[in-house]
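Q: Make up one entry.
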Amino acid sequence: MIGAQAVAGNSILPFRLAGLHNTHNWPDHGGFAKLGNHGSLSARRRAHCTRAGNNEEVGSLGRELDMKTEVLRGTDFSDMAEEETSRQELQLPEEGYIGLFVRMLGMDNLVEDREEAVRALWRHSMGGLDCISEIVAYPGVLTLLVSLLPSKRTASSEAAAGLLRNVSSCDVHRPSVAESGAVEELIGILTRRTLAQEVREQAANCLWNLSLEEVVRNRLDISELLPVLWTMLDSEGSDKEAATGILANFALNDCNHELLVEAGIIPKLADLLKSGEGSRVTRQEARKVFLELVQNAQFKQMIIEEGMVPVPLIGASAYKSFKPLLDVAPTLPEGLNVKPPSLPSTFGAGKLLLGLGQKDNLYNLDDATQLAIEGRARQHFLGRVGLLEKEASKQEATTASRKDAVTIMTWWDGIPRLVLILGLEDIKVASLAASTISEIAINEDIRLAIQKAGSIPYLVRLLGSGDEGATEAGAAALEQLAVSFDVRKSIDAHGAVPALAEIVKADDAPGSVKEKVLMALDRLTQTGEEVKAMIKSGAFPALLNMANSSSANTYAKQEAEGILEELSSRKVDSRQKLVDAGGIPALIHTFASGVPSIKQKAARVMENLAARDSHAESIVTAGVELPLKSLLQVIVEERVDPLETPDIVELEETWAAITAACRLLNKLLIHKKVREIIDCRGLALLLAQALKSDLPLHVKDWVSASLLNLDRLIGITTNANVTIESEVIVHDRIPRLVNEIESSIDRDVQEEAAIQLRDLVSQGIESYVAAIANAGGIFPLVELLESGTLKAQEAALSVLYSLGTNEENHPALIRAGVVTPLQRIVRTECSQWKLALYLLRVLPA
C-alpha cells in the first residue's frame, strides 16, 4: 500500500457544501454496503483481471477485497452524526484502502468498479483536509476523476463532481483541480440540460470554488455561462447559491461588469434581496456582486434605482454615541398625519399600537410608508440592543482605514440606518451618511422616504457644526432633496434657509462649501414656482369646485382642502427668509469676489429672488450693477495668448457665469423701478463688445437676448449707423445659421438655415455678407449646393452669388469646389442656371 503524503501548514476553507448536513445530499451508503452484501464485485474484478492475463494480481486483489467485505459487513453507515463523532476514536473502514480505490478508478476497470471506488473516495473526502490530502497525494487521481464527469452513470458523475467539489474547496488543492481539465468538463455538465439535477448541483458548486482563482475566471466564457446561471437563479436550494456565488466571483473582474449589467443582473439580484428569497448564503453572494458593481458611478445609480442603498460601514464602536430615547413614545414618520387614539394612554401604548387600529381604513397606510415604519423600528431596535455591524466588528481596523467600505441594504432598512448614523455625535461619521444621502436621492420616492425617516433636522444640524466637510455634505444632501417640492417644504420648516444664509455671509467659508450652499439655496428659492404654474393653468377653480362638491368622495375633498389650506397659509416663503437673513448683500459680495463657478451660482440665486419687485429693487440698490459690469469688462479686455493652451474647465465656468449674469439682468429688466435705476446704456455697450468676442454661440444667445432687451428700452446704437439688432445678427445669428448648415444632419434644418441666410443677404447689408464668410460659411454652402434639397440649393446659390461679388472670397470659393456644381446647374438649365452662369463668369479662370 502506497503511503499518503502529509500536507501540513494549510487550513481548509469552510466547505461550500450547502445542505450536506441533510442526509439526502450525502452519497448513498448502499454503495459501500454492496461491497459486503454482494460477492459479485470481487468476482467481476477477478474475471476482468484474468482476461487481462494478470493472475497474480487477481489473487492478491481478490484477497484484499474479500477482507474488506468481511470488515464492511459488520459496519453500520446509517447514522452519520455518530460516525463523525467516533471518527477520531475508530478508523473508518475505507481508511487504509485509499490506494486500492484509486487503482480501481483506472479506465481499464469495469464501470461498476469505478463507480464504487469514486463513491467511496467521495465519502472519505468529507473527513476534512487530511482526508482530501490523502486522496490527492496519489498521482493522476484528479485526471481520473475528471474522466468520470461525463459518465452516463448518474451516480459516477455525481460522485466525481462531488469529490472535485470537496478538493476544490481547499486553497492548497484548488489550482491542481483547475489544471486537471475539470473546468471544461464542468461547463459541459452545466450546459447540458438533460443531466440529472444532483449532478448539475455538484458541478455548479465545484465551479463556484474554482472560479475563485483569477486564472480560471479568465478562461471562462461568461457569455456562455450566463443563460445557465440565469436558469439556476430561478431554482431553489444549492443551485441558486452556486449561481450567485459564480456571479460574485465573475464580478471580481472589472472587465465582466458591463456584460453582467447588460444581461440584467442588477434587477435580478435586487428582486432576490428585496423579496428575501433564498438562503443567507445566496443573499450574501448577491451583496458581493453589488459591492463590486457599486464602485462604478453609472452602475451605482442603477443599483439605487432598483431600491438598494449603499450604506457606509463605520464600525460597531461608532454607535456607542447612539442615545436611544427609551422614555419617549414611538413616533410615526415625518409628514404622516393620522387621527390619534380617542382614549389617552398612560404609558404611550396607544401610539405604539396605532397601526393595529385600522378600522374602516381609517389609518390605511400605503406599502412604502409601512415599510418605512418597520425599517425605522427595526434599525432603532438594533441600535438599542447594540447589534449594529456586529459582524463587521472583527474587521473594524480595516473598516476604519477604508473610508469607502459599504454594505448593501434594501431602501426600507438602508435609509433608516443612514438617518441613525446622521444622529450620532461623531460629525465625521455623520457626514459620511449625509454624502450617501446626496448620492441616493435620485428620484421622488427615495427623497420622500429619506424625509419621512427624519433626516432633515440632522442635515440642518450639520450646517452649523463648524466642520467644513460636514457642512458641505449636509448642504449637498439638502440640495438633492430639495428637488422634491414636498421635501422642500420640510427643509424650509426646519430652518435650513437662515442656516445656509449664515454660511454665505461668513468670509472665512471655503469656496467648495459656499458652492454647495449656493446650490442648495438655488433649489430652495425656487419654492412657489409650482404654485404659480397651478394658478396659471387654472387649477385653482378646479380645487375649489372639488372641495365644495357634494358628489366627490371624502378622500378627494380632503386632499383638495389640504392643498388650498397650504397655499393660503404660505405667508413667508424661502425667498423672503433669505432676504430677511441678510442674504442679498452676501450674495452680491460673493458674486463680485468669487471664482467663476461661484459667481454663476450666486447669480442664479439672485435670479430666483428677482422674481418679486421688492427683491429685484433691493438687489439693484445693494449694488449688483458694479460686479455685472466688472464681469463683462473682464471678458471684453481678456485676450488669450495663442501659444498658451487655455484651461477648458475654467473657460466653461467663465461662460456659465456670463450666461447666469445675462439671465439675472433679463430678470431685473422686467421690473419698471429697476429700469429707472440701472445704467442701461453702459451695460449695453459692454454687452455689444462682448458679443464681438470669441464667446461660444450658446453664450452669445443670452448676451443677444440682454442686448435686445436694452435696445428696446433705450434704442442705443454702437455707432452712427449700426444698431444693436444688426450687431446681434452679425455676431450671433449668422454664425449660428452657418453652424446649423455645417453640423446638422437634418436636411430640413439645413434648408431653413440657408433660406434665412438668403433673406439676410437680400437686405443688401455688406456686413452680413462679410459675416457669412468670416464664419466659414463658404464650404458648407458649396456642400449644400451638391447634396441639399432643391430649395436649399436655390438659397445656397443665392448666398454664394452674393459672396462672389467680393474678390476676396474667390480663392475660398474655388478651394471649396464650387465650379463643378455650378457647371452642372448650367448644363441642366434648371431655374437658377443663369445665376450660376453669372457666378462662373466672375470667378477667375
